[in-house]
Specification:
single chain, three-stranded mixed sheet, elongated, 45% helix, 165 residues
């Protein structure tokens, strides 16, 4: 790491800390030449491999803009979209690969979008999964309905249950 003050080619790590969200490492460094200290922040890069074979850095903004179109006219806030993009990035980083296929990003969007807004999910899925008939929509709606009924049939634990009384 070059010193930003004297451009010396080496530096010594004095302190390392993980960021609050665990996505980066903050390092305090000291230059052995001029003795000045500086901070660096290290993050793991995540690249997207597009259909054309080109790669580009992952962008939460691109996830948000793609999903925003599906959410047009729906009761979904900008904060909801930002949280969805964060969940998608966490899922992709959790896969442990530095390069992610663009198709995988779409798959990672579908789950959180379904939880956020079912209509927006259907809109996104219809384009992403190339629905080309009414049967495709019917199958997706049937799947959503069955998941909804399964959720409503699950027993929920009361506040005193499982507390080890």
């Amino acid at each position: 790491m070059h010193c930003p003050f004297c451009r010396h080619a080496d530096s010594r790590v004095v302190d390392s800390r993980t960021s609050d969200d665990g996505s980066s490492i903050r390092r305090r460094r000291q230059c052995p030449s001029c003795g000045r200290r500086f901070t660096t922040v290290e993050t793991a890069s995540l690249s997207v491999v597009k259909r054309s074979g080109a790669t580009e850095p992952f962008s939460r903004d691109k996830v948000v803009s793609g999903v925003r179109k599906a959410c047009q006219g729906r009761p979904v806030s900008s904060d909801d979209l930002a949280l969805l993009a964060q969940k998608v990035e966490e899922t992709l980083r959790g896969a442990g690969s530095a390069e992610i296929d663009a198709y995988e990003i779409g798959l990672a969007i579908l789950g959180p979008l379904r939880e956020l807004d079912e209509v927006a999910y259907l809109r996104f899925a219809s384009v992403y999964q190339a629905f080309d008939s009414l049967e495709d929509f019917e199958a997706a709606i049937t799947s959503l309905r069955s998941e909804r009924s399964e959720r409503s049939e699950r027993p929920t634990a009361g506040p005193d249950e499982g507390a080890g009384s």
